[in-house]
Design a protein that fits this description.
Elements: H1 2-10, H2 16-58, E1 69-71, E2 74-76, E3 81-82, E4 88-100, H3 108-118, H4 124-131, E5 138-144, H5 146-155, E6 160-169, H6 177-180, H7 192-196, H8 198-202, E7 212-213, H9 218-234, E8 239-246, E9 252-258, H10 290-300, E10 308-310, E11 315-317, E12 320-322, E13 331-333, H11 334-340, H12 343-353, H13 355-364, H14 389-395, H15 405-416, E14 420-421, E15 438-439, H16 443-458, E16 473-483, E17 486-500, E18 507-514, H17 532-546, H18 557-571
Parallel strand pairs: 3-7
Antiparallel strand pairs: 1-2, 3-4, 4-5, 4-6, 8-9, 8-18, 10-13, 11-12, 14-15, 16-17, 17-18
C-alpha cells in the first residue's frame, strides 16, 4: 500500500500536463530553427545585394554596364550612316578597352612600367597615378587595337582586364567629315549628322533599325573635294567651300568645306578645321547676288529685258560711292548689266523695286533666316537693321548682307528650277515624298534667268567656267572681306554659282575660295572669274558623265539659240524669248 502511494506521488495528477510540456519544447525548437534559417537567408540576400551595388555603381565587371539588344547573333549598337547609293559612311567596330582594379594590382610600379611600354601616348606617371588609386575601377586605355590587346595579355598582370566596347569609325576618312561629323569616346554625337540624329542613331527612339541614308553621293563628293583642294593649292587660299544641289528636289549631293579633318583621329579634331564653311559661314557673296536682283526686277515688272540704265557715272550716296570694277560707258541693257556684272546697273534696278519689296523677295528665297537643313551647324544670315536706301543698293550686288554658301546655292536652284523654292536637305527623299516648297518667282522669270546665266558664261565674266559639250550657265562673285577698320581690298571671297545643263537645269554647283591669291596664270587677279569659275568648270566636266548627262553637239540647235543671244547681246536689244 505504501508503494502504490509513492508511485502516485511521483506521477502528475493529470496526464495532459506532461503532453503540454513536450509540445512546448517542440514549439520552441521549431521557432529557433526558423529564426536561424531566416537569418541565413537574410545574410545571403545581403551578400548578393552588396555585390550588385559593387558591380553596378562602384566598378564594372567583364560585361558592359548597359544592356544591348541582340537579334540572332548580331549585336545592335549605333546605327550605320550610308550615302544615297548605300556606300558606308559611318559604322561601328568592336574593340577592347583596358581597365584596372587598383586593389588587385600586386605591384603598381612594375605594372605601370610594363603597360607604358605597350601603350603609346600614355605616360608611366599617369599609369602609376591610376594604379595607386583607392578606387575599385579606373580606365587605363579605351578602344585598343587587337595587336595592343594581345601585347597586354602577354604581360600577365593581375588586376587589369578588358571590357568589350564599340568604336565609331568612318571608312572614307575626311571625305564627309563636316557632314557626317563624329562622336565622343562614349559614342555620343558631337557634330554633323551624328549630333543632329544622335537619339535615332543610338536607338533611343522607336523606329526601323536600317542605316540612316543621306542624299549625298560619294562620287560627287570626291570630285568636289578633289577640285576644291586643287584650286585651294593653286590660289594659296585660306579656305574653300563647295556644294552641289539637285534642282528637282533640293537634295544636297555634295558638300565640302576646306580645310577639313580626320574624324577617325580624336586627337586631330581641333582648330578651324571643324568649321563648316558651307552651312556655318556667313559671307558677303558679291556679284552672285545679282542673280536675285535681276530676277526680282524682272519678276516684279520693274524692268524688262529690253530696258537698261546709264552706268557711266558712279553713284554717290552720303559718304559712299558705288562704282563698277571695270567702268562702262553709256547705256547698258539688263542682259548687258548682268553679263558684264555692273554694280551701278544692279543698284539702279534694286532702287526701281524698292527696299520693302527687296526684303520680301530675299525672304521668299530663304536668304534672311537660317537654312532649314538637318545639321546643327547652321548660321543665321547677317542683315542690316534698319534697311536703308544705301543697303538696298549695296545688297543688289552682294554687299551689306551675309549668307551661307548653302543658302545661296538653294536660292539659285529656285531661280533656275521653275521658280519654286525647295528647302535643301541632306536626307534622301523617298519616291513620291511631297516637298514642302513655295513659289518664289514665276516660271517665265525662271526661263529668262536661265538664259541670262548662260549669257554670262558665253559672253560675260564667267567664260572660264565654259565646258565643251555642256551648256553651263553661271554668275561670278567677288567681295571684299570686312575687317576691324572696314573692307580689306586684298582679302577677297571669290565665288561662282553654276547651273547645268542651262536649258534644263539638273544641278547647281557653287564654288567659293576664301582669300585666294592671284598667280601668273591669272595675271595676279584673284576675282571669282579667274579663280572659282575655272574650278567650277572642271567640276562640271567630271560630274556630267557620272550623272549620265550626254554632251550636246553645240553646232546644232542650241548653237542657233546661242547665235541669237550673241546678236541680241551685241546690239544691246536684250534676249529674245
Amino acid at each position: 500500500m505504501r508503494k502504490v502511494d509513492e508511485v502516485a506521488a511521483r506521477e502528475p495528477a493529470d496526464g495532459r500536463v506532461g503532453f503540454a510540456a513536450a509540445a512546448d519544447r517542440a514549439l520552441k525548437t521549431g521557432r529557433n530553427r526558423l529564426v536561424l534559417a531566416g537569418a541565413l537567408f537574410a545574410l545571403a540576400y545581403l551578400v548578393i545585394g552588396v555585390r550588385l551595388v559593387d558591380v553596378m555603381l562602384v566598378k564594372e565587371g567583364i560585361e558592359p554596364r548597359f544592356a544591348r539588344v541582340v537579334v540572332g547573333n548580331a549585336l545592335l549598337g549605333r546605327r550605320d550612316v550610308v550615302d544615297r547609293n548605300g556606300v558606308l559612311l559611318a559604322t561601328n567596330l568592336p574593340t577592347a578597352s583596358l581597365y584596372a582594379d587598383p586593389r588587385k594590382v600586386f605591384d603598381a610600379e612594375v605594372a605601370a612600367t610594363k603597360l607604358a611600354r605597350v601603350l603609346p601616348g600614355v605616360s608611366r606617371a599617369e599609369l602609376l597615378s591610376k594604379l595607386n588609386s583607392e578606387r575599385g575601377f579606373v580606365w587605363i586605355k579605351r578602344n585598343l587595337t587587337p595587336r595592343r590587346q594581345v601585347a597586354i595579355n602577354r604581360l600577365g598582370l593581375p588586376g587589369v582586364a578588358f571590357q568589350r566596347e564599340e568604336r565609331r569609325v568612318y571608312p572614307l576618312g575626311a571625305l564627309f567629315a563636316h557632314v557626317v561629323g563624329f562622336v565622343d569616346i562614349d559614342n555620343r554625337g558631337l557634330s554633323g549628322v551624328e549630333r543632329e540624329f544622335d537619339d535615332e542613331l543610338r536607338g533611343l527612339l522607336r523606329g526601323p533599325r536600317e542605316p540612316l541614308r543621306l542624299s549625298l553621293d560619294t562620287r560627287f563628293q570626291h570630285v568636289l573635294r578633289d577640285e576644291l583642294m586643287r584650286g585651294m593649292t593653286e590660289f594659296a587660299a585660306a579656305g574653300a567651300a563647295g556644294v552641289v544641289i539637285d534642282v528637282a528636289n533640293g537634295e544636297v549631293l555634295a558638300m565640302v568645306s576646306l580645310p577639313d579633318f580626320g574624324p577617325n583621329r580624336p586627337d586631330a579634331r581641333g582648330g578651324t578645321a571643324q568649321f563648316n564653311r558651307v552651312t556655318l559661314g556667313a559671307y558677303e557673296m558679291g556679284s552672285t547676288f545679282k542673280v536675285f536682283t535681276t530676277a526680282m526686277a524682272l519678276d516684279t515688272g520693274a524692268v524688262t529685258l529690253r530696258d537698261g540704265y546709264d552706268v557711266s557715272e558712279p553713284i554717290h550716296v552720303a559718304r559712299f560711292v558705288i562704282r563698277d570694277y571695270k567702268p562702262e560707258k553709256g547705256w547698258l541693257t539688263v542682259p548687258e548689266i548682268f553679263a558684264r556684272s555692273s554694280n551701278i546697273g544692279a543698284a539702279k534696278m534694286a532702287l526701281a523695286v524698292g527696299a520693302e519689296a527687296q526684303r520680301e523677295f530675299l525672304a521668299r528665297l530663304g536668304l534672311l533666316r537660317a537654312a532649314n537643313i538637318e545639321l546643327p551647324e547652321v548660321v543665321t544670315p547677317i542683315v542690316p537693321l534698319p534697311w536703308r536706301k544705301i543697303n538696298t543698293m549695296t545688297i543688289a550686288y552682294g554687299h551689306g548682307v551675309a549668307v551661307s554658301p548653302l543658302q545661296l546655292a538653294a536660292a539659285t536652284a529656285a531661280v533656275v528650277g521653275g521658280g519654286v523654292f525647295q528647302p535643301p536637305t541632306i536626307l534622301k527623299r523617298a519616291p513620291g515624298e511631297p516637298i514642302l516648297g513655295w513659289r518664289a518667282i514665276s516660271p517665265r522669270t525662271s526661263r529668262q534667268m536661265r538664259e541670262l546665266l548662260r549669257l554670262a558664261v558665253v559672253h560675260g565674266t564667267g567664260k572660264k567656267a565654259s565646258v565643251p559639250g555642256y551648256l553651263v550657265g553661271g554668275k561670278t562673285g567677288t567681295a571684299e572681306k570686312v575687317g576691324p577698320e572696314g573692307y580689306r581690298q586684298k582679302a577677297l571671297v571669290s565665288s561662282f554659282v553654276a547651273v547645268f545643263p542651262s536649258d534644263a537645269p539638273r544641278y547647281v554647283v557653287f564654288v567659293m575660295f576664301d582669300e585666294p591669291r592671284g598667280n601668273e596664270a591669272t595675271f595676279n587677279y584673284a576675282t571669282g572669274g579667274w579663280t572659282a569659275a575655272p574650278v567650277a568648270g572642271r567640276i562640271i566636266a567630271r560630274l556630267g558623265p557620272i550623272a549620265g548627262i550626254a554632251p550636246v553637239d553645240e553646232s546644232g540647235g542650241e548653237a542657233k539659240r546661242g547665235s541669237l543671244v550673241e546678236v541680241a547681246y551685241r546690239e544691246g536689244l536684250g534676249v529674245a524669248f
